[in-house]
Amino acid sequence: MIGIINGPNLNLLGRRQPEIYGTDTLEDINNWLLDYVSAYGNEAGGGSLGSEGLIFVQSNSEGELVGAIQEMGFDPAVKGIVINPGAYAHYSLAIRDAIASVPVPVVEVHLSNIHAREEFRHTSVTAGACRGMICGLGKMGYALAVESLLL
Ligand code: DQA
How many whole angstroms separate alpha carbon 73 and alpha carbon 112? Predict the structure, then answer.
């Protein structure tokens, strides 16, 4: 299985600054992602994704995000984690340390191009602990991140 973790304020997608983040809700994106990866076998027992497919966590709390990374990151059934840490990407050393602490690969995703926005968004302290980072491609970033973890 692959874990999909979304951080603070991403529960507001669809209503939150649609000119930046689009009009899809997080549920829309998660359902689209399930559909996108169905080719890899999201059904029971099959495919490279494993029998449990994708598992989704969203939290507005730094501690809960650290807990989710720890739990998924040491679960032998988890092949990798895709995380959009939201604003925590810009300053949470606790989330960076959690990513660096787990054996499974983690890929960071941002819907928007953080380098084309305010200067404080140009740095991600968490991305350096990840296998890679995708930004600016909207929901496609999550799909490409999942695919990269299945290679
Ligand atoms: C974001 C970018 C962050 O700078 C911002 O704080 C978010 C969303 C993105 O997906 O583009 O909450 O992670």
Answer: 26
Which atom of ligand 1 is nearest to 10's Cα?
12
How confident is the model over 31-53, as pLDDT tens digits? 999 999 887 765 544 456 666 68
Choosing from 36, 40, 88, 110, the catalytic residue is 110
Is the backbone of residue 58 left (phi > 0), alpha (psi -120 to 50) or beta?
beta
Our answer on whether the CB atom of 9 is closer than 6 Å to any ligand 1 atom is yes
H helices, E strands: number in the chain: 5, 5
- Quick check: is 110 catalytic? yes
Given a contact cutoff of 8 angstroms between Cβ atoms, the answer to whether 132 and 107 are in contact is yes
Any atom of ligand 1 within 6 Å of the Cβ of 114: yes
Integer Cα distance of 74 and 78 in angstroms: 8
C-beta of residue 77 within 8 angstroms of C-beta of residue 53: no
Distance between Cα 57 and ligand 1 center (Å) = 16
Give the DSSP per-residue string, 5-57: EE-TTGGGTTTS-HHHH-S--HHHHHHHHHHHGGGGT-STT-STT-TT-EEEE
Q: Whole-prediction pTM value?
A: 0.94
Does residue 110's CB lie within 6 angstroms of at least one atom of ligand 1?
A: yes
